[in-house]
Amino acid sequence: MDSEMDSGMDKLKDLFSSGLVVANLGSDVFSDAIRTQDGTSFQVKWEIPCRGDEKLFSALELLRSREIDTSIEQANSRAVDILNESHPYIVGVGKAIDDIPGMADNLILHAGPPVTWDAMCGPMKGAVMGALIYEGFARSEKEAAELAASGRICFEPCHHHGTVGPMAGVVSPSMPVWIIENKTHGRKAYCTLNEGLGKVLRYGAFSEEVIARLKWMEATLAPLLREAIEIGGEIDLRTLIAQALQMGDEGHNRNRAGTSLLIRELAPAVVRSGASDADKAEVLSFMHSNDHFFLNLTMPAGKSCLDAIAGIEGCTVLTAMARNGTEFGIRVSMLPDRWFTAPAPRVDGLYLGGFTEEDANPDIGDSTICGTYGIGGFAMAAAPAIVEFVGGSPADALRFTLNMYEISAGESSSFRIPALGFRGTPTGIDVVKVVEKGIVPAVNTGIAHKDPGIGQVGAGLVEPPMSVFEDAFEAVYEHFKTRMKEEP
After folding, report:
1. Beta bridge partners of 40
2. Which end of the chain has fewer CB atoms within 10 angstroms, the N or the C?
3. pLDDT at residue 133 in the model
4. What does CATH list as the number for 54-84+310-486?
5. DSSP one-letter code for 94
């Protein structure tokens, strides 16, 4: 007995005679105090689950029970596997009325969750009016506004038709669209061609120059691109996106490398096409002058892959984040037909000369599909130069990506980040983890003027409303609670 006591005393002496090593859970002040006394302290990163909300924490206890947690983990793991297997290709350029499922002559598609004409924001209304003028349905802003409000024009989200659109995201029947196919799972997605920056339809501008550019895209750009793909063959988008991330892009607000790689793929076939030399030169110059041309391909690439995980029982991974300038909305795999929405937030950003925060419209666009897919805001560490466009610092870009691993179900096997030792990008936003950890997805975006007809005024970072994730989280909880009651 005495020998055991002596041994215990020796261990106690060793503990206090050696350097103090502490794992600190809580305020950094305690770690700092240990270090000032020549001790070593490791700060354990920890937050109160569900931000201390008792109702949400109670729901979390059920979701983290062994049986349900295992079910969710298996479903989410399957979703990540599907995303990693998915292989999107550019298979053609078509026309909205001919190729988009469910498109109709009197239908206008828009970005974000459902919204009516009277609830649309300024840039969304501007883009709709521009589309009606472009289609020849109206001759002026006044006629277009009256037609849009008449009930003769229908409005539906792009997402309901396998489509995505940047900013206002407006798609009308005659517009040319990229056709993307996820070859692994047979899912197709669609997106209009990118107009460039400045005064463009997607930012709500509808002047004569905007309409003239759209007409040129329909008559010259689209047919030439269609022929180039027929000549050169389908284009592997997954490979292009992976290469672009290793060249400094993040696939959403920085697409310089992606656009350059796309031009390399298309240029030989463009030269071999039957178009006139003048048209060939004009098309190549247009793509060369528009670094965002590739954005309208990363978006449907993500859409074609995320649609493949919609409807997985027990899967809490998001299949969409989208904004219509009035509301921010999300969709969850296991609840495929539901939108969870809240008012669209303001963007914290950098403004073009002559514009300020007072001019800005709330967040808008389907381009958050990029982050949902595992690029965009989730891959900002791959694109430190993005901060010159959206604000912040290179350290912020790295921090954003590292935080996103906390709320993701897995990592990409294709999209890798050089600055993180070629680690795969965080992939598959888990709504349960978002609420549990109190971390919302990172989003970078453009900023549209609040009034119709003006266009882009800046770019920046935006924090999605936590309430949409909490609402989806509670719906997930209710689903599992009901399922438990129904099971014998």
Report:
1. 21
2. C
3. 98
4. 3.90.1700.10
5. E
